[in-house]
Fold each of these.
Amino acid sequence: MKKPVDDNKVYAILTDTTLCTGCETCVHACKQTYHLGRDRAWRWKESVDALSSTRFCTVLTKPGDHHIRQQCRHCLEPACVSACPVGALQKTDIGPVIYDSDRCMGCRYCMMACPFGIPRYKWESTVPLVRKCIMCYDRIKAGGEPACTQACPYGATIFGTRAEMLAEARRRIREHPDKYYPKGNPRIWGEHEVGGTSVLYISDISLDFLAWKPNLGDQPVPALTWGALSKVPPVALGVAGLMAVVYWTIGRRIRLQAEAEAQTTRQAPPSTHE
Ligand code: SF4
Ligand code: SF4
Ligand code: SF4
């Protein structure tokens, strides 16, 4: 049986949507930290400000002037990690789900598995990678906090241990019992959902739209995924596996070629005609 997570030992982000003004200071702090560049209207994007390879987090605006920050939920038992055949996505001991581009073979199973539709693919690149929030793993490992929570001027998105964030959410609900949704018995999104997440929300509207379907349930998705996969005939898995290997081999060749070209460009002497 899996060891239960100690909420005092994993970090979390609490977003209180009632305090968010939609200023996007958090989004810009993230972009600056990861050198994500400007957003462009690619044809595969729902909108310029949707999650993308240039936006690891975004702020969705809903009728009634509600602003909802969207980012990876850093699930306690992440479906993306269990779906990745080569271990490119990993759940760290302190909470963040991180990504290793050197291992990724581009199969995009993580994108299909995520119940919150978070990972994006860098379609615009000749060497595409999966892109998503990594909860500023290096910063928090060094004792700091995520760039986005540090930047928020309104305390709408804050950082601490999961135990502290749950306690803070409960405190806010206790102090304002009629402010949060559903009234009478407000919910902390991510407390139990899909086995619990490290990004938690309290809100005055339903946040069911952030997931595949309302009421995802409390069971971790990997358990459901493998339950379903075990019913797929082995021959089908064999073909899928073969396709994945072919895809990985081609992707790796493209990547090595691009790296070699980049190195040649760097080493080339400056042109006298420029
Ligand atoms: S929200 Fe999606 S991408 Fe993020 S950890 Fe959970 S399954 Fe993985
Ligand atoms: S936690 Fe870090 S990577 Fe994730 S959205 Fe915030 S700044 Fe970006
Ligand atoms: S910085 Fe804070 S208030 Fe501004 S959009 Fe982000 S979460 Fe909302």
Note: The CA atoms of residues 22 and 269 lie 47 Å apart.
Amino acid sequence: MAQRDFVMISFHIVVAVDARNGIGKEGKLPWHLPADLKHFKEITCATASMVKKNAVIMGRKTWESLPEKFRPLPNRLNIVLSRNSDLRLPEGVEKADSLKTVAEILNRNPFKDNIEIAFIIGGGEIFKTALRNCLVQKIYLTRILQDFHCDTFFPAFDDFRMAACSSHYTENAVTYCFAEYVTSSRFTSGPSVTP
Ligand SMILES: NC(=O)c1ccc[n+]([C@@H]2O[C@H](COP(=O)([O-])OP(=O)(O)OC[C@H]3O[C@@H](n4cnc5c(N)ncnc54)[C@H](OP(=O)(O)O)[C@@H]3O)[C@@H](O)[C@H]2O)c1
């Protein structure tokens, strides 16, 4: 597919990290922060266009970590990354065997002109691949101030700068804030992705 055939869609990350950039433990989120889940829903569902939706892109392990009753995430195109050709997903959920395939899915009908932002929502492997491929324009990062002794981590993102930060909130004895990081230093959208 030629580059001119691609719609230039924006890729953003949404993530919650602990004090050591931990994001998960034993396949799950090690904290329960309802206000952060609400924040996640608001960010990933919001569109400027009345007729477009957003996409949420996640690794197979993150997909499986979602309670069955909450998946697929409603009102968003769900794309699950897996190299397993036998993986079965519910109708309407797209499977991709690489980030290049994700770009191809987003650039074909009916999604081509109907998806506004592609949100990469985890987990660790997918965040790492997306950042390594310079694919991400913006990171919505919930920074949790305590250490949850995680086994999965968010990679370094030194070439992003903080563009916004909220005040601190405390919920279930956990203190956190909402930050936004942006990059403008390099090519961050389109098909230049490797598996
Ligand atoms: N704090 C947060 O914001 C947040 C967000 C999301 C997830 N999490 C946590 O993160 C943990 C899961 O992260 P994880 O790193 O273990 O797993 P993951 O990134 O969710 O999924 C990994 C799987 O994705 C597939 N995959 C990875 N790279 C791929 C590529 N380039 N092309 C195609 N498929 C690819 C593979 O699936 P196959 O094995 O099927 O091939 C791989 O096993 C959980 O603890 C979860 O709760 C935290």
Note: Residues 1-5, 187-195 have pLDDT under 50 and may be disordered.
Amino acid sequence: MFKNVNCIESSEGNVWKYIFDFGDAIAEAVLYRYGTFEERTVICCSVQSGCPVGCGFCGTGKHFVRNLTKDEIVGQIAYILADKNIRSSNSSCEKFQIMFMSMGEPMLNWDQVEGAICLMYFGLGWKNAQYLISTIGVNDDEVFAKIIDLSKHIPTLGLQFSIHRGLDPARNQLIPFKNKMSLRKIRDAGLTWNKVTGRKVYLNYCVTIENSINHELSALKDLFPPIVFNFTFSIVCNSNESEKTNDDITILRNVERSFSKDGYNTRIFNPAGKDDIGGGCGQLWYVQDWLRKHKEQS
Ligand code: SF4
């Protein structure tokens, strides 16, 4: 399936980024080890090669090659588990998380993502794994109904919306993809999903100096009740190797504290390896180079 696989280890020594070359497409996946692999293993995998969404902070969003097949999605995870000799059974991995949040938008390749999840959960029997769909919220009711349906059958399936801004006009600038849900529609979709599954919805918010302003944060708190929504606050990664990440962790912590005080379940995501390898998930400089060259040649 793969013509070539490269693995880059971050200087922190607990993050590995894998690049899978299919010849006509490229994918990346990231492996995180927290403590030991037995304690907690996290794999973020790609669902598309490049991405048609075009988020302002993401290098891969400037290029789109093609959708990945379900076998190409599962293949990334299976390869990593075998490479690091990680056993995926209940008894050998206390916390095993598979996140569809590297390159690509899951809702734009839903049938293959669904096929991949079913293959892992029912076919390979990875019932202990937690699966997380991370989406900008494509405005497609039919696909969202399928996500709800699958979530009923897989109790370990989670849902995260990448919102990143607290007001629609600002969000439209950062995520220029037109056919996406408004923040209000994301709220409604999250409430519906929560009602059907009983599980809480994650919201991912990239904190910058501009969007940590109070009226954006108040708008978020007004819209998303803490009883249904958890917040993940992330460092914004740069899409260009010549820039370094602006790690303003103080702003991040202040925002996180303010939400936590108001009753939200919160966490901070500061992707390891972002400075020496490039970006967080979906933003490897090596991958960006490949995509750029592919575009020039085609
Ligand atoms: S951040 Fe995700 S959704 Fe946005 S362009 Fe990058 S890969 Fe696509």
Note: The pocket of iron/sulfur cluster is lined by residues 51, 53-55, 58, 60-61, 103-105, 136, 282 (CB under 6 Å).
Amino acid sequence: MPVQWFPGHMHRARKQIAAIMPSIDVVIEILDARLPLFSENPMLAELRGERPCLKVLNKSDLADPVVTTAWKKYFQSQSQILPMDIVATDPKITRRIISLLLKMGPKRKLLIKPLLCLIIGIPNVGKSTLMNTLVGRKVARTANQAAITTKQKRVHISDEITLYDTPGVLWPKIDDPQASYMLAGSGAIRETAMDNTHVATWIGQYLMSEYPHLLQSRYGLDGLPDTGVALLEAIGKKRGCLLKGAEVDLDKAATILLNELRSGKIGRISLQRPLP
Ligand SMILES: Nc1nc2c(ncn2[C@@H]2O[C@H](COP(=O)(O)OP(=O)(O)OP(=O)(O)O)[C@@H](O)[C@H]2O)c(=O)[nH]1
Ligand SMILES: [Mg+2]
């Protein structure tokens, strides 16, 4: 199912990123640690070109740690790229990131011209959260919904570094069905742009194959069914999501599964693994 969700503010954001890129010293690209390649926007890679790039695998507290280690190795092999896994809400990351940015940028008299750093990434990966953490106070609104930031924002974090936060940008058409379902499952696509039950059915199937024990323990299931729809029915029954005539409300069960996946209640789950 191809997804087309590219509202007007994303068009504008893409143009603004292209306009400012020539003056940028270091790019901080935030990927979702649970699905690093699906969350890597090819359009942004083109705009970034050969600029030094700190690839931040954010929300690593929600991802399977073994898979995250494999992803860091994968990105280490790319030139001009430094990968690190973080939790953007954790103030302990600040010193490390700032010292890396200063090392990666060109050497110059910083007090005269601060290093210009641009935070980019798809919606809801934690760009504004990272900006707030690096600045040490709340300068940008954050929320667990895609497309919260709609305007580029500049903040001086010290005499040495100026940081730009940008609106999350997807690409005009996501053709790969697996990518679109996983992106929706992670929370990067507004729920109005995709069918919740379809997404949860797909994600449910994936979880049954990759993380069966976490599913069974979260929903108190003795065994697992064969299909994603049957899984939603089982979850709906356990949680009392019933319509008239004892039929399961699949939409409610889908919302439960997706919300509990996104908040980490099911466990630490990665939605993509590097190819062996
Ligand atoms: N568990 C967890 N949640 C995080 C982390 N970083 C950010 N979040 C949450 O993710 C949600 C989205 O964060 P934002 O900073 O608004 O994301 P954004 O990339 O700026 O999103 P847009 O402005 O819509 O593009 C918020 O609810 C944050 O609290 C993290 O490392 N771990
Ligand atoms: Mg934001």
Note: The chain has a mean pLDDT of 94.
